[in-house]
């Protein structure tokens, strides 16, 4: 297999063998393991001012982490020794760093300007601006009532049909930017295979005002194609065969399949194999978003991504926000034994951001084999979880404060409200800061009953920004994309494939007949056979 990152001999060494990794190990053991965050603050009065980074509109306060100046120097050395700078250039210049699929990785091109010259020589990169122009024209025509439903009614409802990267990005961004929706347009999504989402929409929406966007990189995904066929049947039942053309648009790399489904050529929007599914919302996968937000607002999300790309590409390693976040992630994961990482946004509009990051981080870095085919010798992707603001406080913060596990935390905190009274956002801010403080300082006054002690010493990052705008959201998403990339480079894994989802898909295919048509179960798993039997009984067969 070709080396993903030319210029470094991946197979020659593991990250754990690097001098900086070993120095970090000694530093952790001798200097940090038994030193509390409170003590670090006592010893270094300027810590709160110094351990802060800016990137675009984002400010990262990482002072409440188990790090000193020495740790940070070692982080930078580790990034250099793992060839992070060369790997960043390899991605931006369009090298085929997704080695198992032999593809370039160019979501960064999708939000670039042509003058940035991001991998322009890679086939089809120059086509992306043409697709954006077609999306812009299409969206304007829908909003202007020039493209309408089969009965002549304007479209009011946009339903994105997709799953994974073809669902989570559009859904997360649509919810986050709810206060930017175009008047009269509403966003819905259908993803799961059980059919209930569409069933609910059928009773809620007027089909004559409903535009379905079938969103699938491959256009073969079981869930998406089942839902798309069910949606088409609903349109045929209610509006007739001829209405299908008017009520469906699609985005995919598979032009033949869009054609077979019956999507009109001018309502098909393509993208390319160098756009990974979970990195695709910047491509035509954002069509449903552009429809509900308006093209200008969608472009502002792309602009935010570009701002973070430039920061990532040009900033020194020690001031590079994605690099620092990645090094911190690795620090807790591989030195402190943390298995999970919580994402806690204090703006309810970001309620799907943790779910979005689950796919981004866990599908990207949930790997145990390196790009040279050998097993890794360190921990890789942490389990990502989280929930928005005070809902999370009233759910699982008990475990953060008094459980036995170390859970590093990222707080996401806008200074201003995303469309409600500022006095309410002030409450959210006070709660966020209080939680970060409580997690660090704990509470253990002499004589306190043990069950009331808060152990404290729990690390957290606080990411602050002025407001949840399209630009800041774009920056946040790209920040985590690049964090994931740097972690993958460090661990020597391919963050851009997802072979681990294949086996389950294949088995599900082979079981459908046994489940729904009483055919013989062909497999040899006794538990599955018994469960199929029990389910049949429950259904009265
Ligand atoms: O879950 C596997 C996966 O391939 C994801 O990587 C992808 O985002 C999702 O399925 C959907 O794929 P598609 O866009 O091809 O329908």
Descriptive notes:
It is a single chain. This protein is α/β, with parallel strands linked by helices. It is 46% helix and 10% strand. The protein folds into 3 domains: 15-81 and 315-442 and 454-497, Glucose-6-phosphate isomerase like protein, domain 1 (Rossmann fold), CATH 3.40.50.10490; 122-299, 3-Layer(aba) Sandwich (Rossmann fold); 502-538. It has helices spanning 19-32, 37-43, 47-50, 69-81, 84-92, 107-110, 128-143, 168-176, 196-204, 222-239, 244-247, 255-261, 287-293, 295-314, 321-334, 353-365, 389-393, 397-402, 422-441, 470-491, 502-516, 526-538, and strands at 52-55, 58-61, 157-161, 186-190, 210-215, 248-252, 268-270, 340-345, 383-386, 409-414, 460-465. The strands form 2 sheets. The chain has a 6-stranded mixed sheet, with helices on both faces. Strands 4-3-5-6-7 form a 5-stranded parallel sheet, with helices on both faces. The longest helix has 22 residues, at 470-491. 6-O-phosphono-beta-D-fructofuranose is lined by residues 163-166, 216-218, 221, 224, 277-278, 363, 498, 501.
